[in-house]
Design goal:
Blueprint (H helix, E strand, L loop, with lengths): L2 E5 L4 H12 L3 E6 L2 H11 L2 E4 L5 H8 L6 E4 L14 H29 L2 E6 L2 H5 L5 H21 L4 E8 L5 H9 L1 H14 L8 H12 L10 E4 L7
This protein binds nicotinamide-adenine-dinucleotide.
Length: 240
């Protein structure tokens, strides 16, 4: 049985991906900062839970170095609606670490094993913010754009070992992150979230399952000739 690790697997898109990959027959490791949520999802799908902060590189190595990982979904992420002039260097550091450096750490620890076994798939969860930018999310856009560059570079390096690496770029998705951030940022947050929804040509937010379907496809043999690609799953928010 193949093993999939889903970071941020305890909520939203990550929980949907965990459920979907389990349904597709993979043994799923649900890794999340929120250990209770990781346990809940892992119990539901018969997977394994790990409490893991992807920004703690030592902890990432400790948690993943002994595991044979066939599929890695770098999904853990965070964002804050904030105009750049109102941010601090600590804010940038936090956002870059969660959304970009955490994915690099997880990839670093599992990639060598994948290459040695000449088999493996990595899917990074970026964002339309990383492709086209977003208002009140400059560090987040930078991190998610960085993740797309990272995806392509890993795809190039790992191809000769039969390891693929792709990304998805979701638009607005109905998850605690979107609604929590919108509520946290008050009236501005609600307006920004609604503006994102209005910018999709389908005129709605996506569901976590719709993103999970795209990730499951990229992780599957059906996508065996796809690498270095960014799949927008965003209701047509941008058509770059
Ligand atoms: N919801 C959206 O509209 C949207 C749009 C584009 C991209 N995304 C991306 O999708 C991914 C999932 O977001 P979501 O909307 O499901 O949010 P969510 O808040 O529902 O889930 C995120 C999960 O990541 C976990 N997490 C946060 N920091 C972590 C850390 N340091 N280490 C490990 N786990 C951590 C949280 O505990 C949570 O379970 C994120 O990368 C996000 O940037 C979301």
């Amino acid at each position: 049985m193949t093993t999939a690790v889903v970071t941020g697997g305890g909520s939203g898109i990550g929980a949907a991906v965990s459920r979907r990959l389990a349904k597709d027959g993979h043994s799923v490791v649900v890794a999340d900062l929120n250990g209770d949520n990781a346990e809940r999802i892992a119990d539901e799908i018969g997977g394994v839970a790990i409490t893991l902060d992807v920004t703690d590189t030592d902890a990432v190595y400790e948690a993943l170095r002994h595991r044979e990982v066939d599929i890695l979904v770098n999904n853990a992420g965070n964002s804050h609606f904030q105009f750049f002039v109102d941010t601090t260097p600590a804010d940038w550091d936090f956002i870059l670490k969660v959304n970009l450096v955490g994915a690099m750490a997880c990839t670093h620890v599992v990639l060598k094993g994948m290459q040695q076994r000449r088999s493996g798939v990595i899917v990074n969860v970026s964002s339309e913010a990383g492709r086209g930018g977003t208002v009140a999310g400059a560090p987040y856009s930078a991190a998610k754009a960085g993740l797309l560059g990272f995806t392509k570079a890993i795809a190039m390096e790992a191809a000769r070992y039969n390891v693929r690496c792709n990304a998805v770029a979701p638009g607005p998705v109905d998850t605690p992150m979107l609604h929590g951030e919108a509520a946290h940022a008050g009236e501005l947050g609600k307006r920004l979230a609604q503006a994102m929804i209005d910018s999709t040509v389908l005129k709605r937010a996506g569901s976590p399952d719709e993103i999970a379907g795209a990730i499951a496809f990229l992780a599957s043999e059906d996508a065996s000739f796809i690498t270095g690609h960014t799949l927008a799953v965003s209701g047509g928010l941008s058509m770059l």
